[in-house]
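Give me C-alpha cells for this 169-residue protein.
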Amino acid sequence: MSMSHKITKTIKSEMNENFSPQVARLAAKEEKTHDWACRFLDSPGGNQNMAKGMRRRFESGEVYWLGPINFPLHELTRCCGPEKGIEYPETEKIWIGKLGKLRRAIKEGEKFPVIIVNPRPWPILSIRDGNHRYEALCLEKKKKYWTLFWFDNKKDEQKFKRKYRDLVK
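Here you go.
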C-alpha cells in the first residue's frame, strides 16, 4: 500500500472522530482541508452555521486554506467573549465555565482541534472557531498553537504569506 493511500485511509477512518492537529495536517497533505474543516465544524459541539457558510464559499470558489501552522497566539484576535462590543458576545458566567474546563484539560495534556482563523479585514487575524481554546491556551501561558487559516481571496493569502514567510513553508 502506498504512503499516499495509507494517509488517505487514515484520514477517512479518523476524520469523523479525531479532529486533532495531527489529523488536520494529514488532511492538508492530501488537499482535503476543506472537507476536514466542514466535518469538524459539523461535529457535536461544533459550529454548524459556520460549516454551512464554508460550504457555500467553497462552491463559489471563495475559500483558500493554509495550514495548519504552529502559529504565535499573540497574533490572533478573538471575536467571541464577555467583552462589550465583541462580535459574538457570551455571558461572563458561561465564558468562565468553559475556560475552566479547557484549562483543566490542557493541564491533563489533552490536545485540542486547530484554531480556525480568517482575516477580517486584513491584517486582523480573527478567530472564527476556537475562541475558548485560544483563551484557555493563553491563560495557560502557551505561546503557539496549531492554526488553520482560510482566506476569501488570493490577495489576502499572498499578504499573509509575505508577512509570515518564516512560518509558512
